[in-house]
Each structure stands twice: as C-alpha cells, then as structure tokens.
Design brief:
Elements: H1 19-33, E1 38-44, H2 50-61, E2 67-72, H3 82-88, H4 104-107, H5 120-135, E3 140-145, H6 152-163, E4 170-177, H7 185-192, E5 196-200, H8 206-216, H9 223-233, H10 237-247, H11 255-267, H12 277-288, H13 294-301, H14 305-317, H15 332-340, H16 344-360, H17 365-372, H18 381-396, H19 400-413, H20 418-427, H21 430-443, H22 447-464, H23 467-485, H24 491-510, H25 515-521, H26 533-548, H27 553-563, H28 574-585, H29 589-606, H30 609-626, H31 629-646, H32 654-665, H33 669-677, H34 690-704, H35 708-725, H36 735-745, H37 749-766, H38 769-782, H39 788-800, H40 805-821, H41 825-841, H42 845-857, H43 875-885, H44 890-897, H45 901-915, H46 923-927
Parallel strand pairs: 1-4, 1-5, 2-3, 3-4
Helix pairs in contact: 1-2, 5-6, 6-7, 8-9, 9-11, 10-11, 12-13, 12-14, 12-15, 13-14, 13-16, 16-17, 17-18, 18-19, 19-20, 20-21, 21-22, 22-23, 22-24, 23-24, 24-25, 24-26, 26-27, 26-28, 27-28, 28-29, 29-30, 30-31, 30-32, 31-32, 31-43, 32-33, 32-34, 33-34, 34-35, 35-36, 36-37, 36-38, 37-38, 38-39, ...
C-alpha cells in the first residue's frame, strides 16, 4: 500500500496549467508552518492529474517540512487502519509511550493483546498523540493519494486529527477521484472543515495542451493539432500523456493522421481488445491483484510463469503495465478499463480464486476479507471462517465497522449461530446490534445460555435508549433461570445471576417508567458480601436504588463503601459510578470523591473520553455539593470542553448540567441557561437521573436571572416527574427546598410551607444532617414574622455540623433577613456576615451578591480584600495551572484532559497573566494563595 508503483497522470517531469492549484497548496503549507493546521483536498475525475499535482506539491515542500509521509490507497481495498500504517510505517516506534501507546492495536495488527476489544476512541486518541509528537520536531506533511479508496478507520482518524490540528504545524494533503461512489461520512466531514481547502482540478485548456505539445514534440505543433489533441483527450492529462508518447514516434507531417488513429486506440482503449489470450488473462489477474508477485499473478491467470512473463512483456510494450516494483498498471484508468471488459461472472471467479490463493499463502485474514467482501451471494464455509477471523482481529484493533461488515456476510450462512450473532451485536450500530440479540434470544431455550445474551442486550440498550425493553428482557431471563435451577446455584451460575441483577438494576433505573418496578423487585433483596467484582457491581447498583427510594442514608452508604474495598476500577466502572451517588447524597463525600477519582484516572490512562466526561461531570456535582465551587467549575469546564470537541450534545447531558450548575453559582445565569439549551437528547424527559438534575439546574439559573415564576415552573415540573418515577430522596433533586425559599420571598407562605413539609417528611427518613437542616431552613423561609427566627436558628445549628456549607450560608442569610424584619439589626448583621464569609470562602458568587446586599440593608459594612487573583481563573485555566504547578508537562496535561497541547498553552498563558507570574516556576506560590488548591 505504501508504494504507488510509479503512477504517472501526465507526461513525466512536465506539469502545466496547475499553477493556481499549486499556489493554494503553498498557501496552506505556509499556514501550517506557522502552527495553524491545514488540509487540502484535491478532487477530479480519473486521469485529471491529481497524483501529479500532489507529487509536484510534495517536491516543492521538500526541505520546508521536517517530515513528509505518504500513502496511496489501492482500489482493491484494504483492512482497517491500513492507510494509517502506510503513513506512519517510516516513523513507527514499536513501543510508544504515554497516550501514543493506545495506537498500537492500529499500528501493529499482529499484536492482539489479551483478545479483548479495543475502544475506537482510545485508538484514535493514541494516533493523535503519536502524530502530535511528530509535529514537535517541526512542520509535518501527511499525504494520501486516492483517498476515495481509503479504509473507513483511517479516514475517521484523519477527521479526528484535523479537528484537533488547528494549532499544530500540520498539512494534510488528500487526492480524491470523483465520479464514482459518493464520499463517505468521514471524508465529507473533512471537506466541510473550515481549515480544509477543496480544490477541484479542471481539464487542461487548449493553451496548456499546446504548451505541452510544444515542449514534448520534436517539431512545433500547429494550433489545429493542439485543438484536436484537446478535443480527443478532453484535456485529460493521463490520456494526453499517452497520445504524446505515440505522437513522438510519428513523423511530424503524419501527426494529424496518427492522432486520428490514437483517438481510436488510446482514448477508447481498444488496445485491450487487441491483446493475446494470455495477455488478457494476465491483465485480468493484475487488475484483481495489483502489485502482487509474479507467481500469484500466473496462478490467478491460470498460465505457466514463463507464459506470464511473456504476457506481462506484451502489456508493458503497450504501455499498460508499469516498470516499477510490483506488477501494476500505469494508472487505475487502465485497471478500470480491464475490469469493465471482464464479464461479471469471470470477475467474481477471479476474486474468489484470488482470495483462496492469498489465504493459502498465509496472508492475514483481513487482507483476504477485502476480496471476499466484494463477492456477491453467500460465502462458502472456508470464507465464513476467514471473515470471522478478520472480524475478530478488527474488533481487537478498535475497528468495529470493519468487523461488522465481515460478520454481516457470515450471518448470510450462519444466521442461526448464536455466537456469531452476539459478536456481530458488539460491533454493529446499536439498533442493528439489538436486532441481532433479539434473534439470538429467539434461538436459545436454555436459561443458562439466554442470560448472558440478555445481559449483553441490556448493556447495549443503555446507549441505544432502549432500557425499558431491556428491563423486560433481563427480568424474563432471570425468572427463567430461577424457575429452572432453583435457589441452589453453583458458583458459575451464581456469578452470572449476580451480574444479570446488577445490569437489570442499571436498566431499571435508567428511565422513569421502570424505576418503580425495579424498586418493587429488589425491595427485599439482601445485599451480597461484595467478595467478587460482580457482587461489588450489584452492591453499587443496590445502593443507588436505595438512595433514590430514600432508604436510610447510613444503610445505603455502608453498602456503597463496600464497592471501594478493592480500590481499583473493575469492568466498565459501573460499580464505582453506582456507588458515588449514594455516597455523596449521604454526605460521605470523601468516599464518593475517591471512587470518582479512581474512575477519572482510569479513563485518562485508557483513553476513554466518554467515561472521563461522565465521571468528571459527576465529580463536578459532588464538588459543588461539598461547597468546593472552584473545583466544581474546573471539572465541569473540563468535561464540557471534551463534549464540545466531540459534538456529543445529542447523547450526553451531564457535562452541560454540571457546568450550568457551576455557572449559576459563579453569577452567570444567562450563560448557564444557554449551556442547558444545547442539550438535544431525544426523550430526555423520560430519564430518571439526568432529567431531574437538569430541571434543578434550569430552575436555579432562572431564579438567579430574575425569573422566579419561570424557576417555580421548573421546580414543580421536577416535583411531578419525581413522583412519576417514585424517587423519594429529599436531597437528590431538592425542589421543595428551592421552592419554599422562593415562595417565601414571593409572599406565598402557605404554598411554601407545604413544600417545606414535603421535604421534612422525606428528610427525617433519609436522616442526614444536611437533609434535616435543609428541611428546617425551608420551614423558616416559609414562616411569617418572628416565628421564623427559632426555626432558622436551629437550621443553622444543624447545618454547621454538616458538610453542607452552601446550605449553611443560605440558612445564615435567611436567619439574618428574618432578624432584620423582626427589628434586630445587630443580630441580622452577625448572621449575614457569616453567610457572606462562607460564600466568599467557597466562591459562591450568587450568594455573595445576595448576602452583601442584605448586609448593607442591615447597616453593615462590607469587608475588602477577600478576593485573590486565583479566583479570576476560569475552570479550565485553574485545572491546567494546578497540574502545571505540580510538575506536569504540557503534553501530560493535554493527554489527561483530552485537550490539545496548544489549548493547554493558551490556558497557561492566560493563567500567567491573571496571576501576575512569569512562568511555571512561580505557579506553586501563586496558587497557594487559595487554601482550596488541590493536589491533582
């Protein structure tokens, strides 16, 4: 694939009429050398000279780029990441370090690791850092010819790279033949990027044709001959080159007559019809297996090797086959003509024979599969085996699309093979994968065999928004297993059943419609000991369910802490995510943060950006919950940056919710509202967890923006939705607390009291100091006159002994206002100043503003100098600066936060300016001004 077999699309060494196109490439190269990544997509029909322009541009760039890497994509197709391997082969380090190590499955197909599937994002992330490392030495050029035949995974990587290349000294040159099949999604995405210049190559005009004739022919041509050449060839440089080679052999006075003959033989390619029988057989073999060895070409043509040598000489004499390394045509134009003249049945036979020859020669299954995928009809048994092997290798390398295409063909003949259906479901798109698993469930009667399929179905359904159906499927499979085996299970059956129960819980808690049913099913289930990974995952899910159903906080927190016994990430991290919710709701914030830190670290090391976003956004909410609003904003902004970079707004919601929550506390409610408006997840209102957090974040943003009626509408919608889902936890989405405070301010005391009483009932059962203190504060907010003071005083006392410092500041504020209304300005000032001090300490700008105004109203004075330059840092700037202060390099910071090095540099530069420091060495002292600065 690396060699292009000396392809020429015009007269060698002579390029005319392409100055504008070369100038545009030169402009892109200048921008790339300046550190602003660019791409140029050369497009045009076959023979128009794309390769010649590409090679000429590369020659001009020689010496200006530190490194130039080139790959040519063959029309026969290739396996996953073949173009990437061809590009990076000259610089491939067999043992890369850092995030670049994640690229190994793509670069070293012979390495299969432990046989587990590799995530596509992780491989792309690793490849990106490998290329980013190469740009560290200077400008880098990546050139891919005939990109229309590039494998899907390599194209996806190029698109992934270019989305992050705006700040890299990188130039990507792509040449695409038009006129065939429509370009794939990834190539279309590249063409649409603002830093990609699409250049459509036109046919050569008469002036350019005359210039070529003048330079190449022994005697100057007349204008009639130039016009005729342009007409005969259509200005196609490849055809023009073939005409010129023939005209040079004719006397000048015979040129016009010779041109008419060439019109019939060269342009219409009737030369192919004049080949000998062996020549035709060899041409078809070369068209089927271009670039292969003589013995394979002879075997495919069905002729002796000596005859194959003679046949290939005939093809070379007619300028059809090149003289470079490997046996291939001078241009794919010729190859396509050979294929067009091959009867379909004969072409099918040749491809099948070629696949068999390659397979017998021990070629990799993925190479053989490229040919097999071109064959119509049902594959033969040996073909199905090769396709399955190819699918397995592709899956292990992070190429699920390639694996899916292979398995689609296998299912034509093995559509009742449950193992094939299960494998195909792993690599297919979610909807197709679920259909495969439905079919597998229909084929299996044994409860033991059905349950693993049901588990796979439920896990796939979480991303496909199919959890309601998954709940039914897993419930039925569990019931069938229990009916068949009874309570006395062996170790293997018990492990499988435990795993199925944890997955059933995850499915049941995903949507509101199934949450009451999953609660009923697991109401009396005794929690397991937590000795195995499966038991710990079940414990995490049970603890989450218990928290939502408002079982005592001490009970569910104890279950959740058992998940952390191993202090490591097991499986996909469901156990840690499940445990974090009840832990932080129960105010065991240290354990909740420990669980999420483990998961974030695992995601950073393994290149799992989706898991990173989910865990980091959850951690942001926990930080907000604990009053650490600086870290909350930093985490929220970090995961939101990745979400924006990957365009995940339609499927992920937690980063937007976390960021909006932090922004409202930072005094930016309008921006918070705008961030929440970006969520576009289908059926969002049906989901049990994120939807209620969304409504709370939206209500608080509306209230902070001065729209109390809009805020109350969102809070009451949240209350109704919680009732529908059967969620009773008082602090999960405490609409009642916010509503009671708002209603009290609006003079709607009776409604506020009802909301406060609702929360108080639930808080007594949950039992944490935070919940009880919030209930007291809500009652006090809705109380009238002097009656509010003792209730709010008790709220302050209870909350002061809890981690709920934001709620304590709110209670102090409410108490100060109540004392002021009761005619006790001195007591009011004391509590308002306490509210202000707490809010300043925790960087709650919204509460600072409210308490400052109330303190001034009470006759108090504001203290000055409570801020520091650290507090001017944005969330992303703080996250980067803290890591830099701890000694992390820009590269390490960028890898861990899924950002580009240039983005890290920009954040650091901004942080230096705001902190008044000159470089990294001064960061530790500058950040130490803030007592909340964490160790990353």
């Amino acid at each position: 694939m690396v060699a292009d077999q000396g392809v020429q699309s015009g007269p060698p060494g002579r390029l005319v009429g392409r100055e504008p196109e070369l100038a545009r490439i030169a402009d892109a190269a200048r921008a790339a050398r300046g550190g602003s990544g660019r791409a140029v997509l050369l497009r045009g029909p076959a023979g128009i000279g794309k390769t010649e322009v590409l090679c000429s541009a590369l020659a001009e760039l020689d010496g200006r780029a530190t490194r130039t890497l080139f790959a040519h994509c063959p029309e026969t197709g290739t396996g996953a990441y073949a173009a990437v391997r061809a590009l990076l082969a000259p610089v491939h380090d067999p043992e890369p370090t850092g995030s670049a190590r994640l690229a190994l499955p793509a670069l070293s197909p012979e390495r299969t690791g432990d046989g587990a599937a590799t995530g596509t994002y992780a491989v792309l992330h690793g490849l990106h850092w490998l290329v980013a490392d190469l740009t560290g030495d200077g400008p880098l050029v990546l050139a891919v010819d005939d990109v229309q035949w590039c494998d899907e995974n390599s194209l996806r990587f190029l698109a992934f790279l270019l989305r992050r290349a705006e700040e890299l000294p990188l130039l990507v040159l792509l040449a695409q033949r038009t006129g065939g099949t429509a370009p794939g999604e990834a190539l279309g995405e590249i063409a649409a990027m603002p830093w990609c210049d699409t250049v459509d190559l036109p046919a050569l005009g008469e002036g350019s044709v005359a210039e070529l004739l003048d330079a190449e022919l022994p005697a100057p041509p007349g204008p009639e001959l130039a016009a005729r050449c342009a007409q005969v060839t259509g200005g196609n440089p490849f055809l023009l080159g073939r005409v010129l080679r023939r005209l040079r052999e004719a006397p000048a006075e015979d040129a016009a007559e010779r041109l008419d003959e060439l019109h019939r033989t060269v342009v219409l390619r009737s030369l192919l019809d004049r080949l000998s029988e062996c020549g035709v057989a060899a041409a078809r073999a070369v068209a089927t297996l271009p670039g292969e060895r003589l013995e394979l070409i002879a075997a495919l043509a069905g002729i002796h090797q000596r005859m194959a040598v003679v046949a290939l000489r005939e093809l070379r004499d007619r300028d059809l086959v090149g003289t470079g390394g490997g046996i291939g045509f001078v241009h794919d134009f010729v190859r396509q003509a050979v294929l067009d003249r091959t009867p379909p049945a004969e072409l099918e036979r040749l491809r099948e024979r070629a696949a068999m020859l390659l397979n017998d020669a021990g070629r990799p299954a993925e190479e053989v599969a490229v040919l097999l995928l071109q064959l119509p009809g049902a594959p033969q048994p040996w073909m199905a085996g090769v396709l399955r092997d190819a699918a397995t290798r592709a899956e292990q390398r992070g190429a699920p699309g390639t694996a899916a295409r292979c398995l689609e063909r296998v299912l034509v003949v093995q559509g009742t093979d449950v193992a094939v259906l299960a494998q195909a479901a792993r690599v297919a798109d979610p909807v197709t994968g679920l259909r495969y698993l439905e079919r597998a469930l229909e084929l299996v009667d044994d409860p033991r065999a059905r349950l693993p399929i049901a588990v796979q179905y439920a896990v796939a359904s979480l991303s496909a928004q199919n959890s309601t159906r998954a709940f039914e499927v897993v419930s039925a499979a569990l019931d069938e297993l229990d009916a068949a085996l009874g309570p006395d299970l062996g170790d293997a059956d018990r492990t499988l059943r435990t795993l199925a129960e944890s997955v059933l819980l995850a499915s049941g808690m995903d949507e509101k419609s199934t949450l009451p049913r999953v609660g009923a099913r697991f109401r009396d289930v005794a929690p397991p000991a937590g000795d195995t990974a499966e038991e710990r995952q079940l414990l995490g899910m049970l603890a989450s369910l218990g928290a939502l159903l408002n079982r005592p906080a001490a009970e569910v927190a104890a279950q959740a802490r058992s998940v952390l016994r191993i202090n490591d990430v097991e499986g996909d991290g469901f156990a840690l995510l499940g445990a974090s919710l009840p832990l932080y709701l129960a105010d065991d914030n240290e354990s909740a943060l420990a669980a999420l830190d483990l998961l974030v670290g695992h995601a950073q090391r393994s290149g799992q950006a989706w898991t990173y976003c989910l865990a980091t956004s959850t951690r942001a909410l926990v930080h907000h919950w604990t009053g650490n609003l600086v870290e909350a904003l930093a985490d929220a902004q970090s995961c939101y940056d990745v979400l924006e970079q990957e365009s995940w707004n339609g499927s992920m919601t937690m980063p937007q919710i976390a960021l909006a929550t932090s922004l409202t506390s930072q005094g930016e409610p309008e921006r918070a509202t705008a961030v929440l408006a970006e969520i576009s997840r289908a059926r969002f209102e049906d989901f049990a967890l994120e939807y209620h957090q969304f409504l709370m974040a939206r209500a608080r943003a509306l209230e902070a923006a001065g729209d109390p009626d809009g805020a109350l509408e969102q809070l009451f919608r949240c209350a109704q939705s919680l009732r529908e889902a059967g969620i009773d936890n008082p602090v999960f989405a405490p609409w009642w607390f916010d509503a009671a405070c708002l209603l009290g301010d609006l003079g709607r005391a009776e409604e506020g009291a009802r909301a406060a009483e609702h929360g108080a009932v639930l808080a007594r059962k949950w039992g944490t100091r935070r919940a009880r203190g919030m209930a007291l504060a809500a009652r006090g907010a809705a109380a009238a006159g002097r009656a509010a003071v003792p209730v709010l005083s008790e709220a302050v006392r209870v909350l002061s002994a809890s981690p709920a410092k934001r709620e304590q500041a709110k209670a102090e504020h409410l108490l100060g206002r109540a004392l002021l209304r009761a005619g006790e300005p001195e007591g009011a000032r004391e509590h308002l100043r306490s509210a202000l001090d707490l809010s300043v300490l925790h960087r709650d700008h919204r509460q600072v503003s409210a308490s400052s105004a109330a303190l001034l109203e009470a006759g108090g004075r504001l203290r000055h100098g409570t801020d520091s330059p650290v507090h001017t840092l944005s969330g992303s700037e703080r996250r980067v600066a803290v890591r830099a202060a701890a000694g992390a390099t820009n590269r390490v910071i960028a890898e861990s936060l899924f950002l580009t090095v240039r983005t890290v540099e920009l954040h650091l530069t901004s942080a230096y300016r705001k902190l008044g420091v000159r470089g990294r060495a001064e960061l530790p002292a500058a950040l130490a001004v803030d007592p909340e600065a964490p160790v990353p």
